[in-house]
Design a protein that fits this description.
Length: 373
Amino acid sequence: MESPKQSSLIPSFLYSSSSSPRSFLLDQMVTSNPSLEKSPSPPPRSSPTILSQKSFLIASPTEPGKRIEMYSPAFYAACTFGGILSCGLTHMTVTPLDLVKCNMQIDPAKYKSISSGFGVLLKEQGAKGFFRGWVPTLLGYSAQGACKFGFYEFFKKYYSDLAGPEYTAKYKTLIYLAGSASAEIIADVALCPFEAVKVRVQTQPGFARGMSDGFPKFIKSEGVGGLYKGIGPLWGRQIPYTMMKFASFETIVEMIYKYAIPRPKDQCSKGLQLGVSFAGGYVAGVFCAIVSHPADNLVSFLNNARGATVGDAVKKIGLLGLFTRGLPLRIVMIGTLTGAQWGIYDAFKVFVGLPTTGGVAPAAAITPAEAKP
């Protein structure tokens, strides 16, 4: 046991169980001010509290803040807003690539390659022409991103609950495919009108300057139904694209954490996790571009040619052309786009206190027989 002399040499807050660094600082503030009288010490209590401590003390950075509860309304709202940021901003940024790609699909005789396509646009329309159609691109893909990511998280949880833990772990890829396909059906309904105006503005010089005059002009020319003329090909392009985008991303990220990184995901830094998200998204984007490219050619052709049908497009472009025309540029564009989208989406999730997407395989349910020792 320590003697009174020994203990007096040690500041009381270091060995007193009833004091804390915060309360010590408060005591020092009081004792250092001669104008403040000390009041008689109250009788000792088993668990003393600091008066009004919560009213003016700021929590330290190490104290955990409020986190969003998984699968709560706030969680889905955060995923929806993250989808707006990831899709709207990235698609708007690559408008020049999209512009050249659409014109290569519509007029390959004039836009023979990527480099010559940029040269033709620069010569005919100047530098400003590279961002023609950026407003419908931003609005359309923001709406699509909100539905795509928000509803994907919803349907993934919904189908997982229907299947149960054991079947979710066993058929997780089917859960990813079903959830992403369901989300994209809704997302394309939001995107289609903007996509129709965007393609017309980008591929018909002189049709309109952008969304403000292009939208009413399109309706006057084609009617409201014309805005959804390309919904079939759009579903044909976007649903396989999104199924590949989400299912391959989830699988690739899980494999990276399993085989390439020698520690569990929850032990990795947030920077490393976001790097994995970008890498997984880029590789997934390459697969997406290949799978969805024939339908992308159809969408560009139908939205540019008034009254055209799918049969007209196949006859004009050719079956081989549907798979190859503009494909190299689209691989570069979609790979970069998808990688950036997953990076932005997961960065926003981290910002609001949510974990990044993927990387942990669903745990199979333990049967009663397995639970017995």
